[in-house]
Input
Amino acid sequence: MIRTTINFQKNIKNKERIFFMKKKLVNIHRLFAIISMLIVLSSHNLFSQEWSLEQCIDSAMVNNKSIRISKNNMKIADAKQDEALLNLLPKINSITEYKYYFDLPYQLMPQSAFGGPEGKFKETQFGVPHNINANIQFVFPIYNSQIYGAITNTSIAKNISSLQLDKNKEQIIYDISILYYNLQILIEQKKFVENNIQNNEKLLANVNLLRENLLAKGTDIAKIELLISQLNAQKDQLEYRIKQLGNSLKFIIGLSDETEFKIDTEIIYEEKSDYQSKATADLLILHEQNSLLRSELKNLYLNWMPSLNLVGTYGQTGYGYDEAPNEFLDFYPYSFVGLQLNIPLFTGRTNNKKISQKEIELQNNDLQKEIVLEQNKLNIDNSKNQRTSTLQTIKNTKKSIELAKELYNQTINQQKEGLANLTDVLLADSALRESQQNYLNAVIDYLKSDIELRKYSSNLR
Output
């Protein structure tokens, strides 16, 4: 009876432990669920916030795949330069060779050396069937024009890779800016269309009331319904273009298509002064390519120069014989150190053809520099003119907004006095919104022309 009571109490305690353990596990799972929810919410808030143009550019500098490829090319250029420098170090090789002669080589011996007649020779075999050579060889380049030329070329190639990275960054900044401005104006256009739809729906309701009182025609209603239908189609098209440009912008700045993404829709501009023109990345790259071509041409001329190496060898030579009664395997050391001079005497005139090709490439490079300079000057002039023109348009649209506001206020006052109806108010409101939209369009055009001027004058970085 006592044992039964004790066992019963133990079972109760075990059940209580299990209950509390389950409760703890449930609490732990709840804690993890809460933490996971907070992480999801924080990430949602992070990506649902409005992105400024600067944030988009900063994200692209880190995540854009094209820029990452350019950075990897920089690392490759560094590795190639290190590789060229390491060619100045001595090369050490270990060579081991074993030969078994089925037929020993023959030599002709003059019989006069053994008391025979002059002019007579006797063939004889020298050596043993087993031959082993093991040696260590080193070569240290004292002078080699090709090694020094390769070092110069890789250094110039490294500079070109750096300039290519700068050019890629400038292009990314320009592309992001244009996409961002286009997206801003599309969003504003969508707002304008939505306001027009609302205004025309109010107008439709007003005309329906007039028709009920026999003060309007059915064709008036049909015209307004057609206009609303056209505005809805325009709105759908704008939504598609906004999504399309948004995906393009997300791609450039390194976000996935599924990421929720919004931009700052507030369009702000300030009048900019002229920029000091600098050498563009394209022109700097052409300068470096010119230096590379000249270095390669110099190396081609230096192909006729001799090269001088310090060489040395230390090794062992083994001879073995495996037939009785004189079986043996003996090793003998040998070593030497010396100078090796290589003088190219005739290369089949291929080097001359390479020199001619390289000289033509240099001429093309000079022509390309002239094209880039002339094209860039033209682009700068066009961008300046466009910026000046859009600035004047901004000033004109500001005046249009003031006139539209004055007309709108007058129409409101007339409506209060019974001298204007709802249609007049809606038309005045539409004229005001249209002038505001024209102002925003002019501001965006100004920002685009400014970013183009910064690009062509090399002021994006």
User: Anything to note?
Assistant: Residues 1-10, 22-26, 29-47 have pLDDT under 50 and may be disordered. Residues 12-48 form one domain.
